[in-house]
Amino acid sequence: MKKNYDVAVFHGDGIGPEIMAPTLEILHQLSRSSPSYELVFTDAPAGAGHYAKTGESFPAGSLETARNADAILLSAMGLPDVRYPDGTEISPQIDLRKQLGLFAGVRPVKVSSGQMTPLALPTGKEIDFVLIRESTEGLFFTQGTGEVTEHEARETLLITREVSEKLFRFAFKLAQNRKRTGRGRGRVTCVDKANVFRAFAFFRSMFDAEAAHHPELQADHAYVDATALWMVQKPWEFDVLVTENMFGDILSDLGAGLMGGLGLAPSADIGLNHAVFQPCHGSAPDIAGRGIANPFAMILSAAMMLEWLGLTRDHPGLSNDGERLREAVEKVTANGQNLTRDLGGTAGTQDAASSVLEALRA
Ligand code: ATP
């Protein structure tokens, strides 16, 4: 008997629908051939295109669909020239983070040997770490409500015990899982600026309190500036990094850069009861409608969704398929054929996605 899992699908704007379509095709195939699970997809209309058509950017019904789903798959959203009257961009993904309490932004950075990277990796070294960016407070706390006068501007950084404790619990649990499955050495690094700001000393003290519960894991600290340097000089030494919202925002783009660009960077925003999986990149309006967008970040995000569902629902069939899907993308990128233009190839979206399906079948 197959177990059903409901997935809310946000098709997105710009290249969003172009990369979502082949991703859903892959998920359908996996689900059809699985003896143990069935994925049931429900569309959740939202975004800049929807706003332009209907005057509504995130209908209440779509939030309900997301809230009731087992997982949420979201493609790139927003368009630079479709904005609210106050000039801000339409981003239902940020509304989802707030509404569903998705405090942990998970950004895996993985470069296997043979895969493209701007670094010259020493022989035998691979990059495989996860950056966790707190996603609901930090320096984004006053986003959109900062005070600006003629003479000064003011934004507030907020670090709360409630969110930080959840964040660090999540980080250590992730490191445990990575160690158990042979992907990480069991190291968690708190990235902060505790030498300068009291708020970060507070952040660090809560990290240390959580670390004390995990003698089986290695816990250490690094300043954010040094972390940026080490991500370039010795990224293979990291396992799990956990940090504040703005620091994480910046470091996650550096991480994407290590992987050769945004086209290969997946992400997840995870809370206690809900999780959204989406590519790190935006809706790329400059290439939309031409069938040339790279679908890999979207497909890798779908793989993360399967792995997360497998772990949280204690369903090894889902975890295995998530891992297989990630490895299929890695095989295609290492092989170097059927890559899209952003990765130096000439393939279109559909051909790149088809080669992932072939690698899955092989
Ligand atoms: P946002 O602020 O919404 O994240 P952004 O300004 O960072 O968006 P993107 O939409 O991510 O911009 O695009 C940045 C550049 O990367 C563009 O030139 C775009 O064409 C390219 N790009 C982004 N995603 C992809 C993709 N999946 N395939 C190919 N090129 C991409």
Distance between the termini: 26 Å
CATH H-tier superfamily of the largest domain: Isopropylmalate Dehydrogenase
The total number of structural domains is 2
Strand fraction band? 15-25%
Helix content: 40-55%
Strand order of the largest sheet: 2-1-3-12-11-4-5-10-8-9
Biggest pleated-sheet summary: 10 strands, mixed
Structural class by sheet pairing and helices: alpha/beta
Essential attributes:
362 residues, alpha/beta, Isopropylmalate Dehydrogenase, 2 domains, two-stranded antiparallel ribbon, 11 helices, globular, binds adenosine-5'-triphosphate
Describe this protein's structure.
The relative contact order is 0.16. This protein has 362 residues and is α/β, with parallel strands linked by helices. A ten-stranded mixed sheet has the order 2-1-3-12-11-4-5-10-8-9, with helices on both faces. It has two domains: 207 residues, Isopropylmalate Dehydrogenase, CATH 3.40.718.10; 141 residues, 3-Layer(aba) Sandwich (Isopropylmalate Dehydrogenase), CATH 3.40.718.10. The site of adenosine-5'-triphosphate (ATP) has 15 residues, from loops.
